[in-house]
Sequence to fold (262 residues):
Amino acid sequence: MKSSDERRERPRGRSSDDKRAQIWACLQDVMDPELDESVTELNFVTKAAVDSRDHVHIEFRLPTYWCAANFSFLMADDMRRAVSALDWVKGVSVVLGEHMYADKINAGLAQGRSFQETFGAEADGSLDDLRQTFLVKAFQRRQVALLSHLAALGKSPAQIVSWTLTELGSLPLDDAGEKLIQRYLERRSVVGPASGDGPAFVDANGARLTAEGLAGYVSSLRRVGINAEFNGALCRGLLAARFDLDTPFVPKSKMMPASSGT
Fold:
């Protein structure tokens, strides 16, 4: 199985098409923090362009006008970080459209400010703390999906909790199982060291799971997944109802001002 770094290698072509492909591949790895789904698959990103100076311009929108400011800023910041990691990129601008805090968020992003600097006394907690909270939730969702798959294959609780990360990565599974392992391993380091001889399955505090407690643990985590699936379906429905997804999006800041009547 390929490592996370190998899977995320980008081609180094320098044609316009290659650059755009690299940008979209980076954005594919940016997740909605609450839903743990790609911002591109959710149809949030409406534009990703690169100019002759290798500056990238990204535009995105969200399902509702009032999506939380910290979620919105977090996604924009994650997009900027992901694309900035490409070695040829000289600058990245990210613009949020059709949102109650769009002007403030876009100004903060353009000036390279943090969420706290942008919102001042209005900022509710640290963006890094929020990011960590949702990374843990993503870890739990991916973990319960994998544990359920392994149980369905007849793997016993004693087997499952005994595996190391190396043993988990070398299991001979079908494509669906391998994808679940891949996604889980991408988030395993969120809750503790992820060395090859470390335990494959731990809880959010990094403690190894036990065979006798596994069934109850899985049952409690399934509630996290059910809530997230409901929220994901709701977001897709709201986005489709709010926007014509077949028509290119034009943020308000890019629109021509309406002519005044006489």
The two ends are 68 Å apart (CA to CA).
